Each structure stands twice: as structure tokens, then as C-alpha cells.
Amino acid sequence: MKEQPNTSIEAWTLLALIYRDLDDKDYRNALFLAERLYAINNQNTHYVHIYANCLFHLLDYSASYTVLKTARSIPCLNLFAKSCYELGNLEESNEKQRFYWEEGSQALRVALSMDELPEDVYWGDELASAAARHHMPSKASLCNLLGDLYVKLDNIRAAAIYYWECLKQNPYKISAYTKLCDIAPDCIDFNAAKLPEDIFTDFELATTDLSKSPHSYFPPRPSADVSEINFSEDLTSSSVEWNSFSVPDINNDYQEITVGQLRALVRYSPKVIEDDDELLHTEYERGDLEIKKNTIIDSINHDIRIMKAGEAYKNKHGLHKRPPVETTQKLKVELTQLDDDGENDYEREKDLYESIHKSTPPRVAKSKGVMDDDPRPNKKLRSVSSKVKNQAIDGYFFFNGMNQYTNLQTDESIINGMNKVLQVLCIIANGYVYQSFYHCEKAALELQKLDDPQYNSARVLCILGKAYYDAGDYQSARAFFKQAFVIAPWYCDGVPTYSTCLWFLEKEKELNVLAYKMKDNRSHLFEAYIAAGNWTKCATGSNEATQWFQKAVKLDPTRSYAHALLGYEEWEKGNSLGAKQHFAKSMIANKRSYIGWYGMATAYQGMEEYVQAKTLLFEAIRLHPRHPVLLATMAEVLYELEEYSEAVKFIEKSLAIRVSTANEKLKEKIIMKLEIEEAAETPEEEETYHDDSISL
């Protein structure tokens, strides 16, 4: 194997922490750290693999599948095939199942053909597995998984071949043998094959190689000379431009993601094996017995259809009680005709797809005259021989006993790398807590400290998108959510809010592409249902949106957002009782979400029960004291309760955040009522004074 360039201490710090979390089964924290590693270099197959591995452990198979689709290392191909296996299990459509399982089998055939895969088994490595970590899957494991995929594809002949190969490589793979037993009736040569006593035989001392592999499959070694995390300058409120929503404006020179680029996410998918690859022609064909059995099954299905038709005839003529008519509407998301001719030009879609990764993320726009500074310089370390320094660094990351090279300079390098990772996590944590408490300005300014690779990651962009959304700036929120989705369409935490932004902004085409892309994501069906509901609501305004939101609630009733959306749907229909029921469920599901409290308040407001609405709005505003719509709604309720002095305070707070013509008119109404109220009190005071004057 050719020598690879060194990597940074920061990267190795992250690798060590991630593997520790994986060992501890703390997959969510491992994923958080792996996202930082992936942001450093999303082309490094070691980083890609560990990131996808975290996603896979969290059962997010769609994400691991998408991340690994273009990775061409053996570990990545192996994990990609596992993702395909699981995704096929989740599908209901036989066509989609076969699609995933065929892709998985192709990936494994590519892996098995690669020169990097060791042909021999080094038992020294296998026996050291309790103390050492393996970064290369064994040939036996690849064959075992490929056998599983061929069973799913109903290619029993090919499955048996790979199970036998698995056992030949490693007789400890007893699961391969049990699966061979399961498919034995369709394996023509099974009875003539080896018996257990022929497979699970003793190792001979003279013939067993207990040495370790001479090859290393570790990531490139760490070096103090390499830095992969840097920081941007601190920004103050006075150094940035502000928009009409009273939040930092985003710059105008970022590259806008087009609908065409979004469409490329749907229309273009990299191929595991190209059409001219000779591996396509080496797949084992199904056996004659399997084909014969399929013919029999098809015949049985034909008989069943005839029997059903006969029963339907009897029902029609009253010979049997007629079954109830099916009234359930089949919900579908279709890709609508866009501005182009609608044809799927592979090369054009490929170019658009690849251009996505060259896009620039939106950042806060700086005030005129504020110059961009270079990233904060790294602390200079005392000069020391690179060779000695790197040998010393190895001792921290490799299990090789005492480190004889340890010295003050090396310790300083290690601490510096560790602190860089800690600083990145601290910035993101700060941004998240500011967003959670609806401080959009603070969240935006804090996250600007990250360098471009860390900043242009889905989690960070979604934090910013949510912050701007909660501030009522849907246009800016859309920019962040869209960038996050196109660079990491498997990261779906922001999709419900993103789709709601698009509904508010009436971006029907973009919303359609989002919903269509999400519909096949079996790992994020809740988010897919929300996106589909918002799209149908935007496109048709029909009752179909309600049905999508109901599917989301049925799938996961513990999430408050779908309950809230259903509440608004019922309220628009004039069903006050239904709206209140859904809003109550939203509040119960998440007592700390202002959305449920505000929704319930609007329901009471519409029923002219203003005292109850006022109480609910107070809690909603306590949870989110900076939302202009909440503040304006409270002013409306106080106006109806004739509490004009308090109403003025709330409407002025709302207008200070966001200027609105409707709210300006509301303020005028409130002030007019307040002046009338004050005028009604003034004559009485003047009259009293006049009487006193006469008496004098």
C-alpha cells in the first residue's frame, strides 16, 4: 500500500473519542463527534466510514447509505452493503427491496475484487482482537454478508457459493453454516458438500500461521505539523448588518442553491458498478430449481386471482354478504413538472449534483468597512525534531506500551489538539443553547467563529435555520435549511421546519422536490410525512395534508409538532373542538414548546374566550419572549379585554422586532381606544376643579 500523508492531532483526538463512545454504545455522542471529523475532510474514507458507522448504529440506514454511496474503500463498501440490506428490509415494495439488495451485492463484489483485501488469514491479528481494533473487514465477513443478500434476492445458488467461501476462510463463522442449512433444500450440491466435522477441524501447529499482517489499515498517522481546525474572528453586534427582522443579515455573495440542484438529489444517484464494469457479467445465475419454483408460485398466484374473481361475483349477486367498501385514500407524493422539459439527462443531473458540493454556505453579513481577517493563528510550539515529535505522538494513539519519546513539547502538541476539538464543541454548544432560548442574534454570531468546513455542516446550519425561523425570518431560515439539506440529505432534523418555511413562503416547487426526496427515506418517515403534508397544503389546499399529518402522529405520537399542525388544520376548518384536542396533545408531548401553547391560545381567541387565551399566551411568551407574532397576538387579546395600556406595550415590542402594516394599524386602534379612555377620565377631573373655583 502506498504511504499516505500525515493527518492532524485534532483528527486523531476525534477518532479516539469516537471509538471510545462506540465501545461504550454512546452512539449519539459518537455521532456528534463524527460530524466534526467529517467536516474536517469528507473525502477521507476513514472519516467517512466512522461517520457512517455512527449513523448505522443509530439505525439511520438511509443516512449511512447516502454517505457511503460514492466511497470506494473496502470498509465503506462493506458498511454500504449492510445499509442496503437493512433498507431493503424496511421497504414494502418488492421492486425497491430488490434495488437496495442488488446495490449491496454489487458493492460487496467490488470489495472482494480489490487488491487491498488480504487473501490470507493472519491468525495473530484475529487472536489479538480483544486488544486491537480492526479497520479492515475480513474476506469471510464480506462473503457472509454477500450470501445474506443473495438469499434476499432469491439467488440461492449464489448465496450457497459465498457461504461456503466464508467457511473456507474462517471456520469460526458458524452462522454461515446454519444459514446454509436453512437454504439446503434449494442447494443441489449441498448433500455432496462437506459435513461439519470436515469444516470445524483442529488447527495443526505446523500449518497454522500465527503471525500478524504486515499491512497497516490505520488512518494516516498524526503529526504536529498538520492543523485541520481553525477559527474565524469574533463578531460583535456593531460589526454586522441587520435586516428588517432585527436579526443579523446574511451576505449576498453566497451561492444560491437552485431548484435544479435540489432536483439532482432526486434524479441522480451514483452507480456502485458502472455499465461497462466486467463485474456485472460475473454474477452467478440462479439455479434451474429456483426458476422452476418461481414458475409454480406464479401459477398459484394466478389461481388465487381466479378464486377472488369468483368470490366477487357471488358477492355481487347476493350469494355472500358484501364486504365493506374500502374508502381509504392512497396518499402519494409525485414529482411535478418543473421549468425544464422534465427529461432525466444523466450527465446534466450529474453535473448539477456535483456542483452542490461547491456551493458556499450563507454567513452573517458584516458591516461595510469590516474586513475579513485570516483565521486565528495557531499557538506556535517550540521547535523540535518532527521525527522525534511524531514518534512521541504515536505513543498517545497506539497501544504500544510506554512512550519513551514523551517530552514537554510533545505534551503541548497533544493538549493543543485536544483543546481545539473542545473549542469546536464549545462553540456549537453555545450556538445551540442560544437557539434553544430564542436568542437568534447570539446564536448567529457565536457560530460564525467556526471555520468553513465546520460551519458548512448540516447540524450547524440547522441550528442557524431554526434560530432564524423562530425569529420569524423565514427567508433567511430557508437559506440555512436548504444548504444543510443539499449537502447532507440524510440529516433530517430540520426537514419539518424547513418544509414549514417553504409553506409560509409559498415555494411550491422547492417544497415538492423536498417532499419527493424524503418520501423514500424509511429512516425518517415522520419528517417525510410532515414535508408531504406541507407540500399538499401548499399545492392543492386539500384535506390531504391532514391525512399526512395524521400518519406522522400515528407513527410517533410522542413528537409535538405533528399534533400542532393537525390543530391548525382543524382550526382552519372551523372545528374548534378538534383543534383544541390536537393542541392539548401537542402541549402534553412537549410542555416546553411555545407552538402548542400559542396554538391553544389562538383557538380560545377564535372562540372569543379571551381570558383563557391571555393566560396561555403569557406562557407562550415566557417560553419565547422575542417572537413578533406572539407579542402581536397578545396585544389583540388585551385589546378585546380593554386592557389598552398593556396592549400598547406588547404591540410596541412586536413592532420593535419586526415592522408590519397590520400591526401598525393595530397599534393605531389601541392608541385610539387608549386616548378615548383617557379623555373620558379628563373631563371629570376638570369639572371638579371648576366647582372648587366657584365655591372660592
From TrEMBL:
Q: Where is the signal peptide?
A: none
Q: Which organism is it from?
A: Thamnidium elegans
| UniProt keyword Ribonucleoprotein present | no
Record family assignment = Belongs to the APC3/CDC27 family.
**What is the protein name stated in its UniProt record?**
TPR-like protein
Q: Does the record bear Magnesium in its keywords?
A: no
Annotated region (Disordered) at: 358-384
Q: What biological-process GO terms show up in the record?
A: anaphase-promoting complex-dependent catabolic process; cell division; metaphase/anaphase transition of mitotic cell cycle; protein ubiquitination
For this protein, the record's PROSITE patterns field holds:
TPR (PS50005)
**GO CC terms in record:** anaphase-promoting complex; cytoplasm
